[in-house]
Amino acid sequence: MKTFLRSTYSSQSDRAESSKSLMLTQTARDPALRRMRSEAQERALTAAEVHAGLLARPLPCLPSKFFYDHRGSVLFDRITRLPEYYLTRTEEALLPEAARDAVARVGPRHLVELGSGLGTKVRTLLGAMSAAGLLESCTLFDVSEPALAQSLPRLAAERPGLRTSAIVGDFLTDLGALGPGGSRLIAFLGSTIGNIHPRDVPGFFRSAASVLAEGDGLLVGLDLVKDRARLEAAYNDAQGVTAEFNRNILRVMNARLGADFDPEAFEHVAFYDAEAAWIEMRLRAARACRVRVPGAEAELVLPGGGEIRTEISCKYTRPAVEALLAATGLRLEEWYTDADALFALALMRRTAERSAG
Ligand code: AVJ
């Protein structure tokens, strides 16, 4: 029997700290849901990341993982159903066939989903593993504890025989918590990888490779480079849901760090940077402002029209992915795409040789 979860803290003071919150009291009773950090550690990390981001020049920025409090997760869920947002429905159309093929190749008994969110994408993969008679366990890994607290019990109820668990963590730093691989398939769907700066993608691949055994798989959903109009429409929807999602990051800063952003004083901006091959989202101050962020020991002074970067969403080509995979311990095995080449699912396999670096 494998250990899928590893608790990285257990001190009494951390437990005492955690029990102050009802949510954490509940999760402390669910041994299948583990946090990588205590609430106190999480707050300190958030403060440090936001502090560094707000100091960045020429463009202050906020890490996009902070979109996803409960309201942010619900807004993103609405985005996935917008007519302009082709990503989710295109991936969903590719997934049944890709899942069948990936399961046939890898033969996985253990599924891990990174960035599982509200937990709806994982079902097709579980179905394919179950149909092949392989399914034993499923681990959901996400930055949002409320999302996992909702999706984990639902998954367990849906599949009574399945060993289910969840990890609250950051996929850039915390994959080690998964422990060693073996008959493992990691799914990283929905173009979530697009939020990782290309310079950090090889490091992400290496850390994924380190929790896979030889022959294990990583299935990655990638949004593809395409014409600017189509890309920009997907991030500037007519109903303004993406704008509301974008402004939500300021509400999260207000709630978690005691900031005094006025979300309504910021305008949503999203454009395609063809050279970088990413969509960039920003928030533009309608007028000059001074924002206090006491929880991050920061103050942000913006002129009228001044901007904050809130997200990059990278767009890929197959050669670009292959270049980033070089010497990471993973190789590209299959590339599943739609007739219009809007989106791709890339099946990567752990190679025999140890990864460099
Ligand atoms: C969840 C990162 C895949 O980049 O398309 C949607 C987030 N931002 N609309 C994306 C998002 C604005 C989304 N990902």
Task: Supply database-style keywords.
globular, 8-stranded mixed sheet, binds N,N,N-trimethyl-histidine, alpha/beta
How do you describe this structure in short?
The protein is of the alpha/beta class and 357 residues long.
Description:
The structure is a single chain. The protein is α/β, with parallel strands linked by helices. It has 11 helices and 13 strands. The protein has an 8-stranded mixed sheet with strand order 1-4-3-2-5-6-13-12, with helices on both faces. Strands 7-8-11 form a 3-stranded antiparallel sheet. A two-stranded antiparallel ribbon has the order 9-10. The protein is globular. It starts with 11 loop residues before the first helix and ends in a 7-residue tail after the last strand. Bound molecules: N,N,N-trimethyl-histidine. N,N,N-trimethyl-histidine is lined by residues 79, 87, 190-192, 194-195, 235, 242, 245, 311, 313.
Biggest β-sheet strands, sense, barrel:
8 strands, mixed
What's the end-to-end separation, in Å? 30 Å
Structural class given helices, strands, pairing?
Answer: alpha/beta
Mean pLDDT: 91
> Beta fraction of the residues?
15-25%
Helix content: 25-40%
Write the layout of secondary structure elements.
Elements: H1 12-18, H2 22-29, E1 33-35, H3 39-55, H4 70-79, H5 86-106, E2 110-114, H6 122-131, E3 137-142, H7 145-158, E4 163-168, E5 184-188, H8 201-210, E6 217-223, H9 228-234, H10 241-257, E7 266-273, E8 278-285, E9 289-293, E10 298-302, E11 307-314, H11 318-325, E12 330-337, E13 343-350
Parallel strand pairs: 1-4, 2-3, 2-5, 3-4, 5-6
Antiparallel strand pairs: 6-13, 7-8, 8-11, 9-10, 12-13
Helix pairs in contact: 4-10, 5-6
Bound molecules: N,N,N-trimethyl-histidine (AVJ).
